[in-house]
Amino acid sequence: MILGFLNLTWPVFADALALGGIYALMAVGIGLVFGVLRLVNFAYGQLIMAGAFALAYGGQWGWPNWASILFCFGVVLALSVLMDRLVFRPLRLHSPAVMLVATFAVAFLLQNIALLAFGSLGKTAGSLAVLQAPWDIGGVFIRKIAIIAVATAAGCLVLLQLLLTRTPVGLHMRAAAMDFRTARMLGVRANRVIAGAVLISGLFAAVSAVLLSVEQTQVTYTFALPETIVVLAGVVVGGLNRPVSATLGGFTIGFAYGLLGGILPTNQSQYLNSFIFAAVIVVLLVRPSGLFTRAGGAVERV
Predict the structure, then answer these.
(1) Is residue 242 situated within a structural domain?
(2) pTM of the model
(3) Rounded alpha-carbon distances, angstroms, from residue 142 to 25, 70, 110, 266
């Protein structure tokens, strides 16, 4: 297993950074909804799946790439709004357990709808396959998608941070996350704040759908499900109570997943999931509050 580290190359390192960036985007999308609603949305992966199917159909219908990407964003955002209006909002005053079970139900419902509508083989999203081509950077061939994924993730996270710290909507979201009842008494509109968090989370899901569709061109009803489970583990490891720590947790577990997947020999790659989740258990035993949180520090969820 130690000899596997001899397989570490710049392309493998770049791919690991790209996967870490995608997982960070998914992590911050999950963290935003948790920050405002105190809800871990297990249906988040199905939003990404729906966006990937939209992208695949856009390419199949002969649409230009920009139109397929817009279609992907439209489908994901529409589903996000419907999920909020039909599920989250009516159950908002119920216990977290009820809402958690509801997200499981939504996840399995969307998954089975996709299975019935598109079959077990799914569709091929090959319209952006050109991004798999390598770029020659100083004699090192690195896939375009690796560079684009890292740049996109960094840009999205910077824009989100500016939104949360420099705009009234972002400040209201942060206030609602810290103390929703007090924030409402001070004039913060609950529905507007929650709708904003859901829409921003949907935007990150749509971006993740586009990037993952390039990485995995075959879109099936289980698309993004394994990634969502790993990201959820990363969010908990990083620290669910703060967006920065949750994002770092998602990036860390994605980077580790990509790096180990690239350097491990083929006959040992089946142990990757076992190693990752064993490491998650160890981290939670040592730092149950999160790897990137300060023990006893103030809690700020958005």
Answers:
(1) no
(2) 0.88
(3) 21, 27, 35, 21
